[in-house]
Amino acid sequence: MRRRTLFSAGIAAGAAAFIRPEPALAATYTGYAMAYFTESPTMAAASYNLHLAVSSDGLNWTPLNQNRPVADPTSGSGGLRDPFLLRKQDGTFVVLATDLNGTDWAYQSQYLHVWDSADLRTFRNYRLLKVHSLATHAWAPEAVWDPARGQYAIVYSAVVGGRNVLMVSYTGDFVTATTGQVFFDPGYDAIDGNFVTVGGVNYMYYKNNTNSTLLGARSNSLDPGSFSVYTGAIGPGRGVEAPQIVKSNTADTWHMWGDTWSPNGRFFCWQSSSPSGGSWSLLNDRLYTQPLNSKHPGITPITAAELSGLTSQFGTPAWRRLKSYNFPDQYVRHADNVARIDVYPFDPYQDQLWTLVPGLASSSGVSFRSVNYPSMYLRHWNYAVVLAADDGTTAFRADATFTQVPGLADSSWSSFRSYNFPDRHIRHANYVLRIDPVTTATERQDATFRMGY
């Protein structure tokens, strides 16, 4: 969550999340659900409502409901940020979120948005939950069952003593909660914490809001005031916040997500053999794809039946995105009717969305129809790939048809061979798309794309 602070005009607030140890995680949960809200560089995609995505591997995500909201707050500010998903002790879910519509940082709410859900397909009993009576906010709430207290701990950030600290309130029903008390205060502005428990030790990763890096702290208990820092600063070379740590369901590894902002907001992802060591390696963008325009993720493991149910309920997007293999932070888009790759995110964000239809010249091929200009398709013209209106001619249909083949640089990705010039493939050259013969290793990488969401 991008916020104002007392120290700078850019960043503020946060919270802590707890994930109880799950020794049989891979055997029990075979997928993940992510809650988020959406923004884009010019705010064209701003939607301060509850969005959901699912993933089978926890790295590549499929937005649900065409990336539209699945629930809307109707009280308080009328908008949310920082949604969080908690599986309760009875196996059902509760959704918590910041009561803040957009970027009105002057808005100070002592309340949280709350929904109950049996399966994340329907959301009921919407309400506001008061967590403190201070003249400040309650931002980025997350919660965990505290067995020592027999209650859920709701952790969020608020300003105490002139800086953001992590607060905790306790509840048994998410209808009423105790008045907040300080949970973690390292002596500087600290926000956006996230907890995992490994081998009986609790690890908290949070944002040092004075320099926009992530740090890890640990404790043998979940008691307020018990955590001490044990790592150095972690960052992708730019400001990062909102860490979210989950265990892989396919390998004995952990992943930590982090959100960034200006000039172009996006997620980064790290990997570690265990949070206990405090060492995290930044993953290559090739290995993961975030939901379109997503901000501040809240991730929880789900079962195969839950993943299937969510996909059946909300469907998968009608559009696709194409990620470059050798520039994996860039996606295929059209700009001034020229096909090119550009760094994500950008606006108009619809420029990167393509409806894949049977090839206009052969149903065994594929054609790329623009989502925001649905009468226009990618075609080649003098070997350059451009966006053009279908003129109904045989030549256009042939130029706009491509054969999808295993990726020339990686067979798990895709390449696209020209229908009427089958010795040529779509590739990027100086970031602009064209069809060319592909012979070198670099050209094979230029011609390889991941087709996903």
UniProtKB/TrEMBL annotation:
<keyword id="KW-0732">Signal</keyword>
<dbReference type="InterPro" id="IPR050727">
    <property type="entry name" value="GH43_arabinanases"/>
</dbReference>
<feature type="domain" description="Alpha-L-arabinofuranosidase B arabinose-binding">
    <location>
        <begin position="321"/>
        <end position="450"/>
    </location>
</feature>
<dbReference type="GO" id="GO:0016787">
    <property type="term" value="F:hydrolase activity"/>
</dbReference>
<feature type="signal peptide">
    <location>
        <begin position="1"/>
        <end position="26"/>
    </location>
</feature>
<dbReference type="Pfam" id="PF05270">
    <property type="entry name" value="AbfB"/>
</dbReference>
<keyword id="KW-0378">Hydrolase</keyword>
<protein>
    <submittedName>
        <fullName>Glycoside hydrolase family 43 protein</fullName>
    </submittedName>
</protein>
<dbReference type="InterPro" id="IPR023296">
    <property type="entry name" value="Glyco_hydro_beta-prop_sf"/>
</dbReference>
<dbReference type="InterPro" id="IPR007934">
    <property type="entry name" value="AbfB_ABD"/>
</dbReference>
<dbReference type="InterPro" id="IPR036195">
    <property type="entry name" value="AbfB_ABD_sf"/>
</dbReference>
